[in-house]
């Protein structure tokens, strides 16, 4: 839904699809940058990297598994199950997993020669991109990555619409997974300044996107859909 010239309008299917691909590109791009920079990825991406390290299976596989599990949890948290949206969210998550893996492979050789400060700038920029992309896809209200949908549901169901608190509650589980992997392998990968920044301030990036990017788009309580 969007607000324009004092009136509320429903997004057309074409508009929803457009925002879907814009968001998918921004979020995947940002995750790929943060993983390739190796100075701290978003917590869920970092958890997938650490699971891959422990099991020696592809990171993309765990990104996909996380998306599917989050989609199942979402079904239990909403008041009314919308199967079209649930299936669409899983498809988004699987596409996201593929795109992030490809972006990370693409960016790694480009970022590897850089010194610490340029890498850090790229890493933080990537994480900001993730938050902005999440803001757009949440408000477009078409399909979401299941983890972002989980954040959105928690935001309205438990935290009175607070994006920072909703995001923080989501990330706690991702960090726990990585800590378990650390205990098993003795290595903690894809954690750093970027992860700390993402953990505490990604909700603020989402809130910034709400106010400054596609400002006419409005949030709808996902628990009522």
Automatic annotation (TrEMBL):
Keywords, comma-separated and alphabetical: Membrane, Transmembrane, Transmembrane helix
InterPro entries hit by this protein: YczE/YyaS-like
Pfam families for this protein: DUF6198 (PF19700)
Keyword Transmembrane: yes
Chain ranges passing through the membrane: 17-37, 57-78, 90-112, 124-144, 165-185
Entries under PANTHER family matching the protein: INTEGRAL MEMBRANE PROTEIN, INTEGRAL MEMBRANE PROTEIN-RELATED
Designated name of the protein: Predicted membrane protein
Lineage of the organism: Bacteria, Bacillati, Bacillota, Bacilli, Lactobacillales
